[in-house]
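Let us practice reading a record.
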Amino acid sequence: MNDLPKLSKILEKYLQDNTFPTRPRELYAPCRYILEIGGKRIRPALLLMGYELFDHQIRRALPAAAAIELFHNFTLMHDDIMDAAPLRRGQPTVHAKYNLNTGILSGDVMLIFAYQFLTNFRDKKIALDLVRIFNRVAAEVCEGQQMDINFETADEVTIPEYLKMIELKTAVLLGGALELGAVCAKATRADSKHLYHFGRLAGIAFQIMDDFLDTFGDPATFGKQVGGDIIQNKKTLLVLKTLEIADKHDQRELAKLLATSPADPTEKIEAVKNIFTKNDLPEIIRLEQNKFQDEAFHHLDAVAVADEKKEVLRQTVLGLFVREK
């Protein structure tokens, strides 16, 4: 079975051979730009791994893999606009490099090309199934994004609501990629659904870990600004769990800190971290992550193919959790 670097290389070649038109340049150059500035291609690689569990001719699944990658980058283009983000993968975002209208329109056309890849699938019955799955997942990603926006101004957010938001915004696309790969290979419905839930639950676990590392990660190795969620007063799982279990004093102090936006956030970050640590949040969050991670791998174990065929997929997903502390 092909590993992540090999699959990424195969996908890059396919995207280069099936690139966007050259005109109008103002529309298509930004599409090529966002694909060329990096990205690990995790989602299309998972789709190809899901396919390869059942059929070794992975090139048949490349159109679906390309569709997932285009959809993911379309969401990044529009998310960056909504967040007014100046950088993506260390480079200017599309709307910052070009302009706002270009970011909207080029994102739109990327989504259209994603559908073209799906409908070009050789088996038209499978193509229809792919579009149905893709539509379900795409709508859920949008729902998750809206939930995240709503949380910014909500007075209260519950833990189940937060977990649902990260499931929709982040995790269902990982699960959907694996499900699409299985459907391309004509896997059974049971195996396709087990792979979907494997990716979905692993995605929730990954996002929980990402939230944890945003506060407690090593700034030299994490790859993002540590404490960014605290600076933005985000209602992460660490915040929600603290508000649930801490005493009244710590609850009031945390709420007070997260209502401020100091010019120098250093003291605020340390004060919030101290409240988290005092209430054993690092251990609590680790246990929560492990719960979703373990449940995810139960679904992979249930897929009716030999364990050795699953090993590359297993190690790839485990690798997502190997992040610097």
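A brief commentary: The CA atoms of residues 67 and 114 lie 4 Å apart.
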